[in-house]
Amino acid sequence: MRIILPLFLVFFLCQYSNAQKNNCNEPIENPSLITKDFQSFWNYYNTYIQLSSDFVGLNSNSSVLKKEEFLRLLLSGKYLPLRLKCKRPIYYKLLKVNSWSSNDIPDQIKNMANMEYGNFLREGKPFKKFSYTDLNGNIYNTYNTKGKIIVLKFWFINCQKCVEEMPSLNMLVKKYENRKDILFISLAFDENKKLKEFLKKKMFKYAVIGNQEDYILKNLGLQIFPTHMIISKMGNVTKVVNSYSELEIALKKEISK
Asked: N or C: which end of the chain has fewer CB within 10 A?
């Protein structure tokens, strides 16, 4: 008798088998050291955890979870994401914590999980029809950008992190300057006049569209800045992240498709 397993179940079984084969049950750091105080946790988190990555999530019994379910459990503030020693793929395992040394730790985990959960829910959906005119009068819309990868940045002048990452983003634009199928476009809260003055002092190689505060907050529903989105050649949102380092990885993956 032939037994046909659902593809999703086969994937889970394969991932579980790989985890066992690669001895991926050992955490990269001792949980008691990670949670001894907030600074220890924060150092660990920034070094080893990137929830936007294509990780394999495990529950406390080492069973594979869908990413959405993994993030929802993190939102409860009851779990610590443990990075396991496997290099590839990346494995995160949920460790239930009954008592935290500082309430700042679960609060921060919930904040980071909430941000990534919101980003995750946007992915895979068509990007809304748009028409933008940049500071130089160039028009970008749903129709004349079809068949191109669009890299969007959402920002405003008084956002320190938004400005700090600009040199790195300029390098990214330079890296792909010969790719005519990739567009780098930014939407800012600020008025065009203020943006033009700002850009006299700060180089930014993205196309810049001003006066977008209402559109960004109300139409797109974004609340965290900077935010970066990658739109596929088919017009779908393939990745939403909040830092240059995450964007660089995501764009490389999108281009390789």
From this structure: N
What is the 3-state composition of the chain as percent helix, strand, coil, each rounded to the nearest 5? 40, 20, 40
Strand duo 56-58 + 64-65: pairing: antiparallel
| Cα–Cα distance measured from residue 68 to residue 219, given in angstroms and rounded to the nearest whole number | 24
Place of tokens 């220890």: 40
Partners of residue 157 on adjacent β-strands: none
User: What domains appear along the chain, each with residue ranges and CATH number?
Assistant: 21-121 (no CATH), 125-256 (3.40.30.10)
Average pLDDT, stretch 63-70?
97
Whole-number Å distance between alpha carbons of 163 and 27: 36
- Supply the pLDDT for residue 12: 43
Confirm if 94 and 70 have CB atoms less than 8 A apart.
Answer: yes
Residue 28 token pair: 């990269």
CA distance 219 to 214: 7
Q: Is residue 49 over pLDDT 60?
A: yes
Rounded mean pLDDT, 26-44: 97
Task: Annotate 121-157 with b (16+ C-beta within 10 A) or e (fewer).
Answer: ebeeeebeebebebeeeeebeeeebeebbbbbbbbbb
**Residue 183 vs residues 21, 126, 149, 186: alpha-carbon distances, Å:** 42, 17, 6, 10
pLDDT digits (tens, 9 = 90+) for 82-137: 999 987 789 999 999 999 999 999 999 999 999 999 999 999 999 999 999 999 99
Tokens found for residue 22: 């690669």
Cα–Cα distance for residue pair 84/90, rounded to 1 Å: 7
Number of neighbours of residue 199 by Cβ within 10 angstroms: 13
